[in-house]
Every structure is written in C-alpha cells, then in structure tokens.
C-alpha cells in the first residue's frame, strides 16, 4: 500500500502554516530610521538641557556660599571691634536670718519677765528676783553688814538672808562705793554700801552692782533695776520666769 493510500484511509490531516512575515518597503524602513533618530535627538536635547540647568544651579550655590562667607567675616570683624564685656558682678552671699533663740528677742537681747531666777556666784545658789524698771539700781538682801580692810582695800561682809531661805549665806565682796537712796515711805536718805557681784540669768552672765539692804520681809531677796537691764534685756511685764532656773552645773 502506498503512502497516499494510507493518508486516504486515515482521513484528512490538517497542516499548520507559519504566519507570514510582514515585509517593509524601503520607504517604510527609512521612515522608521528617521523616527528613531528623532527620538534619540529629543532625548539628547533634554539631557543637555538638564545638564545646563544643573550647571546654573551649581554656580548659584557657589555664589551663595561665597556670600555667606563674606557675611560671616563681616560679623566677625564687627564682634572683634566691640569693647570687651564688663565682668559680671560677683554674687555676695547673704547671711541667713536666724530665728531668735528661746528666751531672746530678734536682736539677741535677753527676754525677762516681771520675776526671774538669778544665780549669784558668791552665794553659789539661785534666788528669785523681782524685775523693776521703776528702780534705778539693783539691790540684794543683806544682814549684819560689816566693812573691813583686806590688802589695803575696803571689803564688805554680809549675810544674804530671806524668809524663804533656811540658812543665811555669808558673802564677802569688795566695796565699790556708798550711795544714798531715798525711801518711798520716808524723807530721809538711806546710805547703803554697793558691791559688784557676778550673776547669771538664763544664758547671760554679768557683773552687776547691788546696793545692800535688808529685804528679808519683802517678797523677793533680789531686785533688778534699770541699770542692770539697760542694753542687755527686754522686760515683758505680762510674764514671769521666762528664763529657766540656773543650776550649779549650768554655771561655767
């Protein structure tokens, strides 16, 4: 059987054909080449334009930088020509105001009431004292007053006595002088010896002058007058015993 017979027996067989290749004429080919050249030329022109713009921008930036440098130099020259800044004033530390301690005023004076405890070194004990701003001098209770001489100087020996005391206390001190004091209930002047005694009220120790007088029948064995209080104490007559009672261990 021939090949033709076999094909006839198997039926019709379809054969695919290759797509036809378009053919360009010479005119069409030249046209495509011209279009490509135009596109290339346009692209080159755009790139050239961008390059020129970038060059202009770079020149402008360089100009701005130079201008800024000149401005900085001018400012620096002006700063150098300015006078030097004066030194800043030094801060002076201020002292802190301290609160007044107990029993003292703001300016440090002793605050006392109408009655206070007073320590007398010569008696080695504390006694109640009346604070009297109406009296000029201070006074301490004294009995058996005797004036004697010691080492060529006048001394006084007396006994401190009061109704609140169990025993009399002997005290000896140099005689400072005599004073004449007018009693409120009499016209005569009372001549009294004056001694200087070391005393203490609160935290204040002073050597004060006292006239000697028997005060055993009075409420207080010691009276503190204006001369003692002047410049060192302030009196609050509405209070009593503002300062604590001195003790032997407190006395230095």
TrEMBL record:
Residues 112-246 form the Retropepsin-like aspartic endopeptidase domain. GO terms for biological process: proteolysis. Residues 26-64 form a coiled coil. GO terms for molecular function: peptidase activity. Keywords: Coiled coil, Hydrolase, Protease. It comes from the Bacteria. Pfam families: Zn_protease. The keyword Cytoplasm does not apply. This is ATP-dependent zinc protease. It comes from Aeromonas hydrophila.
């Amino acid at each position: 059987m021939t090949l033709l017979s076999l094909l006839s027996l198997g039926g019709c067989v379809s054969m695919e054909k290759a797509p036809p290749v378009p053919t360009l004429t010479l005119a069409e080919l030249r046209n495509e080449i011209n279009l490509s050249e135009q596109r290339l030329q346009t692209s080159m022109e755009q790139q050239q334009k961008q390059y020129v713009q970038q060059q202009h921008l770079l020149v402008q930036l360089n100009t701005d930088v130079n201008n800024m440098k000149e401005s900085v130099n001018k400012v620096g020259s002006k700063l150098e020509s300015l006078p030097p800044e004066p030194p800043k004033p030094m801060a002076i530390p201020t002292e802190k105001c301290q609160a007044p301690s107990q029993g003292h005023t703001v300016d440090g004076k002793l605050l006392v009431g109408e009655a206070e405890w007073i320590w007398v070194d010569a008696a080695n004990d504390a006694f109640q004292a009346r604070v009297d701003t109406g009296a000029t001098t201070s006074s301490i209770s004294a009995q058996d007053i005797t004036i004697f001489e010691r080492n060529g100087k006048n001394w006084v020996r007396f006994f401190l006595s009061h109704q609140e005391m169990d025993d009399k206390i002997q005290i000896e001190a140099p005689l400072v002088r005599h004073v004449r004091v007018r009693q409120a209930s009499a016209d005569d002047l009372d001549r009294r010896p004056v001694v200087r005694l070391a005393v203490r009220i609160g935290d204040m120790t002073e050597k004060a002058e006292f006239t000697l007088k028997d005060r055993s029948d009075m409420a207080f064995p010691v009276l503190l007058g204006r001369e003692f209080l002047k410049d060192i104490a302030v009196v609050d007559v509405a209070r009593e015993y503002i300062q604590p009672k001195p003790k032997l261990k407190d006395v230095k």
